[in-house]
Amino acid sequence: xxxxxxxxxxxxxxxxxxxxxxxxxxxxxxxxxxxxxxxxxxxxxxxxxxxxxxxxxxxxxxxxxxxxxxxxxxxxxxxxxxxxxx
Length: 86
Known about the structure:
Elements: H1 9-24, H2 28-41, H3 48-81
Helix pairs in contact: 1-2, 1-3, 2-3
């Protein structure tokens, strides 16, 4: 198999999976960063691996962004209502 210089489909694929895994492990900022970097690396590539990588990166970005917004909303709710452990 011949590899072109600048073909980052495999790297982006791994970053997309890492993005989802870090989102599940509640490390939102790392997951969001990995998803964005992976998406940027594979933007102009059109191979089948790049399409899969793009899908994983989109899912990772969406999951992490959603979880960041959810944690911000919960922090706001618990702060304004005065409930919580402290």
